[in-house]
């Protein structure tokens, strides 16, 4: 047993987090910043944070993740990191020539109270920022929220750093896809394009973190949201923010500061959330939904009906980021699966309320916890076993100990690939996801069934 | 792919160095120039390199931090200590199962906390009002849940800044429990210039808080400590297999596949064998000073090096039975190794490698490449000090700068009861006269060829330059470097985590490595970089169906 010390009996813990279902803000900021074309994320703090975040993102994407650091030593921690940041900005623009440096703080620079606006301003005034180049920033203290919060803060930093309201609308629609995979961002764009929308998608990590191998290394790959698009986001006719936790802050900022009205939707995982997404796009664009999309929807409904007997009533343990888990819970409940244990590491009571709404509509009450950890999830599973676990790579220890099929979903996924290439959003994503779930369930049946019951046809 | 030899004709190492520095602002260029050395090691003169100096802000470094060195590298591989990271969640999360330290906890009732991540998950109110109470409660909760024999506390950056006295909390809880050792590490990420500082903090604390705690006699003959071996990919398992086969008893590995009790009993060994000089040479010194255990440098990376290291250990013990057994084991193990070398060597001979990793691996792995007929054109360390490059003779001359001064040095004296020289001074002198060197390490530079490049704290920009110019057949570094190198069409082998391969130590490990490098440098994938239409773009005639 890998997690042999996890007892079945659940005791309240007030201070000790065990096997967290979240990580810290800066990594989210780094991931978001990689979704700007020509952008080098910069971690303002000691260099270990940057190393850890680059390692984790690299392991998840199997792609180069470039990011710089202010490399604080004890001196900078005592006297402030201003000098480190200014020299970092100079070195970065000289050596790597990015279009944008996206600075985020760490718990170190936040604790000593480094003032990013003042420091970046100083760098600009002292000529360290070349003409036509940009420095944007986000405050991402690691002791507040989670990696999701950091992502949200950097997305807001993009709006604050670039969006300009010229007073003349450009007819475009902002879509903020939230913390999803490059493949999902690509899929959001495809769906919006099929609907006939001219969109500004930010951030957009497709083409950056699911790149090609061709013998050339580009520190700044061709993908990512162009700076011109981010500037134009202030003149958009509206913003569609996917995910309350990941995307709403930036959308609301654009609303109040640039008069770009916003709508916040769930992430389009599964049938219902995708329906709402497409329907909103239809209204925004004032168009009919093209047959292609209706057909894709029909395929998903078809699969659900064809294979319903294998999903129906299956109990699921689910752990991940709030926007993703909410949409996924709704999806699973909508096909009559039963997510019975649901945890997110990110704090926030709203999460528990939303999950309660979804599950009570499905006629049951789930164990749900925001700000929870995987130790608790495991204990719940020990007390009430499930048919499937859905969560990040770290769930594999629970899955193996308890001998439960396991679907990798969310962040990080270190030990499998596919997430960067195949979407889970939209109807296509739903098909992909259901196919994988079904595969796990039927593979288990094939493994466990007695010989006389072992069948070719399901 | 153009061969490296063809490329090198047009470039001298001096040109390459100049090219790497050309783009830097003047101050950066000056600093980097002292960390990049065109090897001219000739005779007794070892050129000087600048090492263990601060990373330049904004330069994309390979380095990590002090916490990573302390919690991740040194304490990470120990299975029965509950390691609690005191800080916001990130540091604990990123050091959770990410170093591939394997451990064998299969014994009945064995404890294994390695798959767990424990953190105080500090929130903003803990930063504002102090985190000591939360830490104390977390230690209590860990104790109540698991009743471990030891709990270790690791400080992250903000903990040092807000002044939580983690050591006082540890002392208090240790006294309270009575049956659980509790100790703390002031390993805030901003200390020192690299993860090396964290190794020091970890090793010093383990030495002062744990080593010597168990005086019970350990069974077995020819007792050694294996220092600086972290059991990545099972290296330690393979070394243990060989030692056992020879009849040598390894009573404690620091810290691969280790337990609390192994550390507590380390003073019962009669010899310390040091693998990674950088991460632990000072522990070997302290074991000698306090308990009288001499140390030698060994290297179990490479079949020949393994044989040589076994012979060194046998020579030290001077027992004819052991010596004979070691020779038997070498004779048994080598044929397979030689068979595999003979098989793969036609495909690896003359190929080239670059190694930028760790604080000893960039040295040790050159032996394996040499066994395959491969030449190392450039190498360097991520977190080494000058002695790892130039040899221990420079230690007395090392400048102690502000960053090194932050790292606690502990004063060690001979233990009044337990100090016992393992050999008489005459015996030691005799062994030395016969060629066995104690407390000695010559460093990386003398082992590298004339006119190769030795580069400290290589960064992403320089790595890319090196690879573009020299086009080595394989590049070895870590996960952060892996994919940018591979995008250039050059296979990259991780030598921190081994890309899930290994073991690579010892005899079987050598065989694994030969196969792995053969696979990498001869994989067909590297010939697929361009599509057919990109290979011959000039062809523009219309294709006509007939």
From TrEMBL, chain A:
Cofactor: [8Fe-7S] cluster
Keywords attached to this entry: ATP-binding, Iron, Iron-sulfur, Metal-binding, Nitrogen fixation, Nucleotide-binding, Oxidoreductase
EC number(s) per entry: 1.18.6.1
GO molecular function: ATP binding; iron-sulfur cluster binding; metal ion binding; nitrogenase activity
Annotated catalysed reactions: N2 + 8 reduced [2Fe-2S]-[ferredoxin] + 16 ATP + 16 H2O = H2 + 8 oxidized [2Fe-2S]-[ferredoxin] + 2 NH4(+) + 16 ADP + 16 phosphate + 6 H(+)
Note accompanying the cofactor annotation: Binds 1 [8Fe-7S] cluster per heterodimer.
Domain Nitrogenase/oxidoreductase component per the UniProt entry, residue ranges: 24-441
SUPFAM superfamilies cross-referenced by the UniProt entry: Helical backbone' metal receptor
Entry superkingdom: Bacteria
One Pfam family matching this protein: Oxidored_nitro
One GO CC term on file: molybdenum-iron nitrogenase complex
Record-linked NCBIfam families: nifK
PANTHER family, per the entry: LIGHT-INDEPENDENT PROTOCHLOROPHYLLIDE REDUCTASE SUBUNIT B
Subunit: Tetramer of two alpha and two beta chains. Forms complex with the iron protein (nitrogenase component 2).
Function recorded in the entry: This molybdenum-iron protein is part of the nitrogenase complex that catalyzes the key enzymatic reactions in nitrogen fixation.
Sequence similarity: Belongs to the NifD/NifK/NifE/NifN family.
Name of the featured protein: Nitrogenase molybdenum-iron protein beta chain
Organism in which the protein naturally occurs: Desulfomicrobium norvegicum (strain DSM 1741 / NCIMB 8310) (Desulfovibrio baculatus (strain Norway 4))
TrEMBL record, chain B:
EC top class named in words: oxidoreductase
Claim: Lipoprotein is one of the keywords in the record: no
Catalytic reactions of this protein: N2 + 8 reduced [2Fe-2S]-[ferredoxin] + 16 ATP + 16 H2O = H2 + 8 oxidized [2Fe-2S]-[ferredoxin] + 2 NH4(+) + 16 ADP + 16 phosphate + 6 H(+)
Domain Nitrogenase/oxidoreductase component: 65-521
Record bears the keyword Transmembrane: no
Pfam families reported in the protein's UniProt record: Oxidored_nitro (PF00148)
Record EC number: 1.18.6.1
Cofactor: [8Fe-7S] cluster; [7Fe-Mo-9S-C-homocitryl] cluster
GO terms, molecular function: nitrogenase activity
Domain of life: Bacteria
Keywords carried by this UniProt record: ATP-binding, Iron, Iron-sulfur, Metal-binding, Molybdenum, Nitrogen fixation, Nucleotide-binding, Oxidoreductase
UniProt cross-references to InterPro entries, sorted A to Z: Nase/OxRdtase_comp1, Nase_comp1_asu, Nase_comp1_CS, Nase_Mo-Fe_asu
SUPFAM superfamilies: Helical backbone' metal receptor
Role played: This molybdenum-iron protein is part of the nitrogenase complex that catalyzes the key enzymatic reactions in nitrogen fixation.
Protein family membership: Belongs to the NifD/NifK/NifE/NifN family.
Known partners and oligomeric status: Tetramer of two alpha and two beta chains. Forms complex with the iron protein (nitrogenase component 2).
Name of this protein: Nitrogenase protein alpha chain
